[in-house]
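Justification of resources, computational component.

The compute hours requested in this renewal are based largely on the per-chain cost of generating structure records like the one below. Each record pairs the submitted sequence with a full structure-token output. That output is archived, and it is also reused by downstream analysis tasks.
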Amino acid sequence: MSYLIPDDALTPDTFLSRAADTLPAHLAIRLTKTERSQFEGEFEVERFHMAPNGFLHAGSVVSLADSLCGFACMANLPAAASGFTTVELKSNFFGTARDGRVIGKSVPVHLGRTTQVWDCEVTHKDTGKRMALFRCTQMVLYPKA
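The structure output for this chain reads:
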């Protein structure tokens, strides 16, 4: 299969440079693995990741998972595609954090011509506890004929 992003461009820098000045950059998300079959990333819990109640904001967790799945979707777009858009996402939360490092691992569930489905497990790196499971569906976009 021919991809929109070539193999030699599957680097953290490629994806993070595209995300400069966007939400993933503002949340200090770092990519640690960028492969077509799996994207991994993390952030150190900082004050700006928190909700007013002193716990990690659910939106920070969802943003990590959604960013990893979105980057992974981009890495798997066919060469003929022009982009993608999220059509559905769902999260289940099992725990939270006040400090430490939060990591996410995204894997494909379905890589079709018109849709992709990705799962992401979010855990607390220091404790190993699962914090959330996330699933999203992406619609693959093509130029109008």
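The CA atoms of residues 37 and 44 lie 24 Å apart. The chain has a mean pLDDT of 97.
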